[in-house]
Structures
1.
Amino acid sequence: MPRREIEGGWIRGWPDRKRPESLEANDAEGRTIFATTPMTELEGRITPTDLYYIVAQLDMPEPIHPDDWEMEICGEVENPLTLTLEDLKKLPSQTVRAVTECAGNDTMFFNYLHKDGKKPSLVSPKEMDFSALKPKDGKKLSIEAIGNSLPTTGMSSAGEFSGVPLREVLKLAGVKSNAVAVRFQGFDRGRPDPSLIYLSSGRDDIEVKDPGVINYDKGLPMEKALHPDTLLAWAMNGEHLHHIHGAPLRLVVPGWSGNWWVKWIEQIEVMDHMPDCYHQTEYFVLGDTPEDPNKVMCTALGVKAVILDPIDEDSPLPAGTHPVRGLAWSGEGAIVGVEVSVDGGTTWEDAHVEESHDRWMWVRWNYVWDAVKPGVYQIMARATDEKGRQQPQTPWNYQRKHFDGIVPTDIVIE
Ligand SMILES: Nc1nc2c(c(=O)[nH]1)N[C@H]1C(S)=C(S)[C@@H](COP(=O)(O)O)O[C@H]1N2
Ligand SMILES: [Mo]
């Protein structure tokens, strides 16, 4: 079992303990464009920065020196502005701890629960085979094969973000009363890869809009833009943002899926209508089918508990008491309870949930499982948030976004 390995050198005074590693993928220039978080190997609540998951939808941009960077605030405002990082640091600052979760995290669990698909592992492979994404010998791409060859777990992390509340900057610019949305534009550019839509929808027979080369952008509805915890952040986990996470400035939208957390911001445009951003109306959407006329954009995450210990790969376990542990979070605020079932969902008992002062942060929970009788067990966990929402919240949708279903952990007790 690879996760039980205790080889490896000294890591700052802790011998014989391998440091967790993330699975990474690089582009042709050797830049990291994707990485997953080794969820099952972490403790505490903050994801170390070098283990934070990474997603870049377009091409990884060249870094900008913070001294050479400035940001424009334009559109439906009384005083259009250009601000530097120095200017932003003079405004009232704010620190928020929050979960970042990619809308596509755990996506293949939808197939597992609803379509008898293969069960994904919570343990990321150490290497990734991108060759499945390229059609061989003129053959058609097998969506199923691609889905099964790429990890779809470990695309969530949690950190501490520091910056200025967006509403402070909007106040400075004087938002006009007709404003309905704030559009953020990153300085990264590229042409969205249509195979990503085939991949997330599991279908390659649909028409995919080709927007050409675009900047990454998102139009945040005014209400969320004015929320005091929505930040323009220049720092993460106690230091300035790393380039890969959006330096010099990124958006932090607690509770809403990762795609809202626009990195590498170069422009903020206040708008009197909802903009038609590709990653808002084409890609990060919820709907029954691609043809569904009532598609909605992905916004707040559901409510979710994951069991990180034990995992399927730990089976079989000896008869006795075992800790059952995991994380729980919600897109609407604090977690108020986690229940555990060790009989496949027939009966549920309360788990211990850590107290937290950070409503956007995940919490750790644990439960003592008295596994006295040998047999086959299905362990489940489900969370409830402060709004009274219980897991699961998000039904099957064709893009398979915002998965928050209850996934049993299968354990044999010997
Ligand atoms: N400018 C820009 N911002 C972006 C993206 C992007 O491609 N470009 N990807 C988004 C998506 S889909 C996710 S899940 C998060 C990931 O943030 P991270 O890489 O810092 O973990 O960034 C979001 N912000
Ligand atoms: Mo994402």
2.
Amino acid sequence: MNSLPAGQRARDTLPRFGLLPFAARFPHDPARRRLAIAGAVAQPIDIDADHLEALRTEQTSDLHCVTTWSVQGLRWSGFAVEALFERHIADRARPDPTATWVLLRGQDGYRSAMSLADLLRPGVLLADRLNGEPLSIAHGAPWRLVAPAHYGYKSVKHLARIDFVHAMPNLYPFGFRFLNHPRGRVEFEERGRGLPGWLFRWLYRPFVPYTAARFEQALRARRSAPTSPMP
Ligand SMILES: Nc1nc2c(c(=O)[nH]1)N[C@H]1C(S)=C(S)[C@@H](COP(=O)(O)O)O[C@H]1N2
Ligand SMILES: [Mo]
């Protein structure tokens, strides 16, 4: 295995993980592989998975959560976002050229933002398979973003919508904006805003076991709920 980036520790298995308010939130339709492209575009469009098979590609990459855990060697299958942009978005939706940021939304209401340049980097995937299996609900069904050069919070699970916007959006109330670094590059330890990366390591690390347990517990509760069929 490759060596890990600064401040990261390896885990063997991928936990279901995220911001605590999303532990008990799930995609409303995990079978719906559709992506809405909206915001500052000439024509809002919906992209259907059936049109994307020609772009399918596989990639092995690592997931680095900002809270310091990493899982190496994940085998993803899906669609390169750069190709998806060129073949399905640029000509059809015609984003405003000055809209250089994107707001990414999951079916669970989770949001994250990236610069368009970061979204279109090589290695950014819209993935619907992990380690040879269809993506589970835990890890982002029906599909998710995979942005290996960025901390995990940019890799939106259950991706449903991309809005083109003119500036980096404020996703959190004042006082919580430190959570959201505009770039979040792992290589430069851009964990959050306002403090050096190494300091965030110590702030976040104590919350990992509790957060992973809460996410796991919420998934178990959903599985045993009589009304929700689960893959
Ligand atoms: N929709 C959605 N996407 C999300 C999150 C979330 O809570 N909801 N959490 C993010 C965070 S912080 C991380 S580290 C990864 C975790 O992915 P995993 O649950 O597959 O390990 O998903 C990211 N994408
Ligand atoms: Mo994370």
